Amino acid sequence: MANFSDMIYPGRGSAQRVAQLANIALEDGMQDWPIEVSDPTRLDEFIELLLANKANWELSYWLLDLVLESAWDDMCITPPQDNLPERTEPLVDVLVAVWEATKAPRIALRLENWACVDATAPDEMFGVSPLVWEARRRIGLSTVHSADGRIHLLDSASSTEPADQPSDSALFDYLALTEDAVGIRTGVDGNVSVGIEVLDAAPVDDNTAFDSVTECSLRVDSGRLRLTSLASDAHGGGLVAVPAGWLRLRVLLFQSPDANATTGVQHVQIQCWPAEHGNPVLVREQNPNAA
Questions:
Q1: CA distance 84 to 109
Q2: Which is more confidently placed, 207 or 120?
Q3: Of 118, 115, 99, which is closest to residue 107 (Cα–Cα)?
Q4: Which of 45, 114, 141, 272 has its CA 20 to 30 A from that of 61?
Q5: Do residues 183 and 142 lie in contact, with contact meaning Cβ atoms separated by under 8 Å?
Q6: Cβ-contact 211, 222 below 8 angstroms
Q7: β-pairing, 281-284 with 212-220?
Q8: Rounded mean pLDDT, 31-47
Q9: Residue 124: half-sphere exposure toward Cβ, Cα within 13 Å
């Protein structure tokens, strides 16, 4: 089973606020709060509360646990095959809405945890894990095994191996660049959560939730990006449709590669849009206030 204690938590003040809003207990010694106070009979109420506070990632973080654990208990009481679409589709929609409201890295990591990405059999997953998998698929979140502290993003038709390429001297600690491939240093040897957004134009410069941010150019003549790593099969990475030609990539890391090496927790958000080739730049590094 997944180990919730491995996650990084928001402040206790947000937990106290959720306890007040939901009228649930919060006591010292509750190691798995709010899972311990979940209640399937109040599932609809908890969902409404989550949607009402979806723009606040800290409150949503705790409320996600409350909703998903209550939904899991509800499935145990009423077998999931009974009216499955009517019961599960709204919950998937809720998870998508919560992510879209903030796209906060800690929400991505929480969804990854509930998805039980390392499970190899159904009995190793939570009852709601398949729903979380579907929500992550819809919003473009995936998990890649970061081998040797790096993941790769490249044109699906490329035969380039970014690990064999020299890093740009200005961004040595972050990127290894070629024309049609980029190696992204994560600082993690293990699973990392990855989100890819395909945009029409450059996004608003709102990256305060991330510890480090870089930008670079990538040529994708095939119109498909492949996400992979040294630990992945050469043809096993996820494919993402993008405009063919030159793209600008903004790579946002939840934690800087060096700072994250000891925690094993990382989320990488990648934004890409059509743009002429430009030099790589370091936009932000080691933000101590990252969420």
A1: 26
A2: 120
A3: 99
A4: 272
A5: no
A6: no
A7: antiparallel
A8: 90
A9: 6
Cβ atoms within 10 Å, residue 271:
21
What ranges in the chain are assigned the alpha helix state H? 12-22, 43-52, 57-77, 84-102, 105-115, 129-139, 257-260
Instruction: Give me the phi and psi of 58, to 5 degrees please.
Output: -70, -45
The angle subtended at Cα 35 by Cα 33 and Cα 41, nearest 5°, is 130
52, 98 Cβ separation under 8 angstroms:
no
Residues 6+ apart with CB under 8 A from 181: 152, 153, 154, 155, 158, 160, 161, 162, 165, 218
C-alpha distances (whole Å) from 87 to each of 113, 142, 169 are 22, 24, 53
Region of 184 please: left (phi>0), alpha (psi -120 to 50) or beta.
beta
- Reduced to 3 states, what is the DSSP secondary structure of residue 39? coil
Separation between Cα atoms, residue 73 and residue 104, nearest integer Å:
27
CA distance 143 to 227: 10
User: Could you give the count of Cα atoms lying within 13 Å of 9 in the half-sphere of its Cβ?
Assistant: 15
- Which tokens is 23 given? 């009228």
Asked if residues 246 and 141 have their Cβ atoms less than 8 Å apart, the reply is no
Encode pLDDT of 109-129 as tens digits. 999 999 998 888 888 989 899
Q: Token digits for 272?
A: 């890409």
Q: Indicate the SS3 state at residue 123.
A: helix
Among 226, 209, 245, 250, smallest CA distance to 58 is for 209
Provide the residue count of the chain: 291
Closest by Cα among 231, 269, 29, 246 to 155: 246
Q: In the block, which residue shows the tokens 């070629």?
A: 178
CA dihedral 268, 146, 255, 8 (to 10 degrees): 100
